[in-house]
Amino acid sequence: MTARAMTVNAAKAIARILAVVHRRALSNVPLLLVGAEVTIAVLCIDRWIIKARDGDPITRDGKTPSATQTIGSHMQDVKWLLTALRWAAPRWETAQEKLYGHPLIPDPASLF
């Protein structure tokens, strides 16, 4: 098993753990933030690697290629993790900054 495969498997496991934590209403927001950020990054990078290697293959028999299935699975996890970050946003100020961003340059009117 390659290092990339182990990393992706670990990220998918973290996503499942965070889903259970969230479903059971265990409010461990710091764990959710760190886990979601790392997992989203790993899954998105793997998606880009798959796309770069395989492109968007179209099969004649109408079956979905394994690369497309993998990308779909990654994106389901990413969508769920973004939903979890939205849930955490009002509860944790850092989540809101990570989800919605913050301006790099402050508004000049707010300085005076």
Question: What order do the helices and strands come in, and which of them pair?
Answer:
Blueprint: H1 3-23, H2 29-54, H3 66-88, H4 93-100, H5 108-111
Helix pairs in contact: 1-2, 1-3, 2-3, 3-4
Description:
The chain is an all-alpha fold and 112 residues long. The protein has one domain. It is 73% helix and 0% strand. The chain has helices spanning 3-23, 29-54, 66-88, 93-100, 108-111. Helix 1 packs across helix 3.
Short description:
The chain has helices at residues 3-23, 29-54, 66-88, 93-100, 108-111. It is mostly helical and 112 residues long.
Count all strands and give the number: 0
User: By helix and strand content, what is the structural category?
Assistant: mainly alpha
**Relative strand content:** under 5%
Tally the helices: what do you get? Answer: 5
How does the overall form come out from the CA principal axes? elongated
What is the N-to-C succession of helices and strands?
A: HHHHH
pLDDT < 50 runs, ≥5 residues = 103-108
Q: Round the Cα radius of gyration to an integer and report it.
A: 18 Å
Mean pLDDT: 77
Please outline the major beta sheet: none
Query: Number of domains in the coordinates?
Result: 1
